[in-house]
Amino acid sequence: MKLTDTTLFLGLFATNTLAQLGTPPSGCCATAAMLRFGCSKLVIERLDPLVNPGVVGTPHNHQIVGGNSFNASMDPAVMDPANESTCTSCTFSEDFSNYWTANLYFQARNGSFKRVPQMVNLGLKGNEGITVYYIPPYDGKTKVTAFKQGFRMLVGDAMLRQAEGQQKQLCHRCYSNIEQDPFGGAPCTGNDTSYLPLEKCEGGIRTTITFPTCWDGKNLDSPDHKSHVAYPTTGSFETTGPCPASHPIRLPQLMYEIMWDTREFNREEWEVGKQPFVYSMGDATGFGQHGDYIFGWKDDALQRAMDNRCTGDSCPNVLKTQSSDAAASCTLPQTLKEDIEGWIPTLPGGAPVVY
């Protein structure tokens, strides 16, 4: 079953997710809401204004999507992406936020590397990049507070190489065929793994990165880019489980999906007992995958979307959209010129591979 209708996809996805979470699905699809839209590739390069502000040539590269004001510094005291950007690679033309993750590479038996491209997700159009979700609580009643100008956060740890210490809701799904059936369970359930799949995934690999939904209400950032936010004390990420007293403000659920198109590499010879994929920071385990976020929606657009329970990649009379071609045409040249296509002898930045 291959869906092209976004509304049908979201209704079925919400029903299945609620069932997986143990929440009665009765009437769910009338109230379940989630923004789900594509952001095409803006640039791939070694910049990270959160972890390495001001540095051109960070230890590993990222794939970045969103507003074209992305740069090495992005000081929140003087810069608002919504004002500085002239275009965005995302479907919603009022979203100049930046979203970025590590890249995935295939390592051949001769030691050379090739970047793994991404597929456009089910029901969406555009170029390779990231699928972004903003999800309010499924009860249809709990109000969320949209992120504020200057807000930023990080999920994951690029240096992690073991399960211990990994944040919640960061996982991989191995697709057995190109149909990418999305109804096998909510993200990070069932056969999903926090490590990179060890078997050949004929339909590709999905990475899901899910951000905390509780905010301290004071700090737009923190030294580790994590402490100002928290996950609910109980329940799963989209539910109305209580926020900790230290972080009482409910935020929208931000989630990334990256659909890695590993199909061309299934023809390569794999070494027995060892999967050949590695993240750009030299991580062959998968535990080090991470996601960064800098908020950049224009004015109160995101708050209006949450208040109106916008769903999918269109919300008439509430949010402005642009064509997939317009989104894909918003790109940036690399600040640090490096080869990102074809076979390369080492990972960009020279990170050694850790298994």
From TrEMBL:
A Pfam family per the record: DUF1996
Keywords carried by this UniProt record: Signal
Superkingdom of the organism of origin: Eukaryota
Keyword Ribonucleoprotein attached: no
Domain (DUF1996) ranges: 48-297
Signal peptide per UniProt: 1-19
Protein name in the entry: DUF1996 domain-containing protein
Phylogenetic lineage: Eukaryota, Fungi, Dikarya, Ascomycota, Pezizomycotina
